[in-house]
Amino acid sequence: MTSISELNSIPKTKKPSDSAFKQQRLPAWQPILTAGTVLPTFFVIGVAFIPVGIGLLYFSDQVKECIIDYTDCNSSNYYDPNGLPMKCADVIAKTPKPSVPCKCDIEFTLPSDFNGKIYMYYGLTNFYQNHRRYVKSRDDNQLLGKLSPDISADCEPFAFDANNTLIVPCGAIANSLFSDELELHSKRHNLKVPLLKTGIAWPSDKNIKFRNPEGNLTEVFKGYAKPKNWTKFIYQLDLQDESNNGFQNEDLIVWMRTAALPTFRKLYRRVNHKENGFAEGLLAGQYILNVTYSYPVSAFDGKKRMILSTTSLLGGKNPFLGIAYIVVGCICLLLGITLLIIHIKCSKSATGMIHVSPTTPYQE
Fold first, then answer.
1. Those residues with Cβ within 8 angstroms of residue 265's Cβ, 6 or more apart along the chain or in another chain
2. 3-state SS string over the chain?
3. Residue 103 C-beta-side C-alpha neighbours within 13 Å
4. Integer distance in angstroms from the first to the last C-alpha of the chain?
C-alpha cells in the first residue's frame, strides 16, 4: 500500500491524459479541395442563389409603402407673435409638457390603392436603442407583475422619483416610451380611418414576458410613481380596454423590444378592415394625418416618420435579403468561371501527371 509520503514524492506533471480526445486521435474528415469539387460547388450556389434572390426582390416590390416625415410639422394650435404657426418641435423644446398638447395636421396623397391588410408604423432616426446601458435598464421581474422595492440596479437613475417613490415601470427604456398619438382621416369618405391598438405585439411577449399583478390595476398601482417623461400612470395607458392596460399595454410591449439599429420602425396600429369603406384596404386619394406631438427628437437630431405599409407573403418591404442573395450568387458564378479558365489553361494533363517522379525536372 502506497503511503502518503510516497504519494507526495511523485512528481506532478502537466502532461494531458492519454485519451483520444486530449491526444487528438479522434477520427476526422479533411476534404481535399480539387477542381472537380470546388468548381461545381461555386456553380451550384450561383445557379441556386440568383433565382431565390429574384423571388425575394419580387415579393418585396409587391409591398406598398407611404412614408410621411412629420418631424418639423407646423402646429395647428400654437402661433408666434406674428400669427404664424409654430413648429411643434419648437413648442415642446420650450415647454416639454405643455398644458395643451401641440397638434399638427399633414395632408398627403396615396397614389394608388393599398389592398389587403394595412399596418401603421412609427419610425425614428438616430435613436440608439442598442446602447448597452439602455438595453439593460429594465426590471423583468417588475414587468412580470412582481411589484417589490427590491428592483434591479440596472434601472438607476430611473428607479425612484424625487420623493423616493418606486417608479413603475422603471428603467430608461420605459421612461423613453414613444408618446406621439397618430390618427388618420380619409377625405374621400370623410371618415376617420379605424385603427386597432391590439394585435401589434408578439403573442409570446404579451402572454409570457409581460403580466399584470392580480386585482384592480388602479388600486394595485396606487402608491407607485410614473416614469419622469410620462404624462400618464401605468394603469392609464388604455382606459377603454382593460386587457390592453398596465404592463400588458401593447404600445409599451412593442417599445420595450429594443431595436438593433439607430434607424428603425415599430408597429403602431392596424387598420380595422371590418369597418365599412375599409374592407379592401385604403383607396387612393387624399388623407390627413393628425398628430398629437409630444415626443422630442431635436435634442439628438432625430427624425420621426409615419409609415403605412401593406405586406407580402414574406412580410414587410425589405429588399436587402434579395439583393444579398443575388450578389452572392453572382460572385460565386464569377469565381467559378474564373477558376475554370485558370484550371483549363494552367493545369497539367492527366497523362503528363502519370509519368511524374521525384527525379522529374521542373518545367514552367
1. 121, 122, 123, 124, 305, 307
2. CCCHHHHHHCCCCCCCCCCCCCCCCCCCCCCCCCHHHHHHHHHHHHHHHHHHHHHHHHHHHCCCEEEEECCCCEEEEEECCCCCEEEHHHHHHHCCCCCCCEEEEEEEEECCCEECCCEEEEEEECCCCCCHHHHHCCCHHHHCCCCCCCCCHHHCCCCECCCCCEECCCCHHHHCCCCCEEEEEECCCCEECCEECCCCCCHHHHHHHCCCCCCCHHHHCCCCECCCCCCCCHHHCCCCCHHHCHHHCHHHHHHHCCCCCCCEEEEEEEECCCCCCCCCEECCEEEEEEEEECCCCHHHCCEEEEEEECCECCECCCCHHHHHHHHHHHHHHHHHHHHHHHHHHHCCCHHHHHCCCCCCCCCC
3. 11
4. 72
HSE-up (13 A, CA, CB side) for residue 123: 19
CA 281 to centroid of chain Cα atoms? 25
Q: Read off the pLDDT of residues 203-236 as tens digits, 9 standing for 90 and up.
A: 999 989 999 999 899 999 988 999 999 999 999 9
* Dist. CA 261–CA 127, nearest whole Å: 8
What are 101's three cell numbers? 398638447
CA distances from 238 to 1, 81, 139, 295 (A): 80, 37, 22, 18
Which CA distances in Å does 56 have to 44, 115, 211, 317, 324?
A: 19, 20, 37, 10, 10
79's grid cell = 402661433
Q: In the numeric block, which cell numbers belong to residue 138?
A: 429594465
Q: Judging by DSSP bridges, how do beta strands 65-69 and 303-309 pair with one another?
A: antiparallel
Q: Which of the four pLDDT bands, split at 50, 70 and 90, describes residue 2?
A: low
Interval 303-356: pLDDT, tens: 999 999 999 888 888 899 999 999 999 999 999 999 999 988 887 655 555 555
Which residues pair with residue 1 across a beta bridge? none
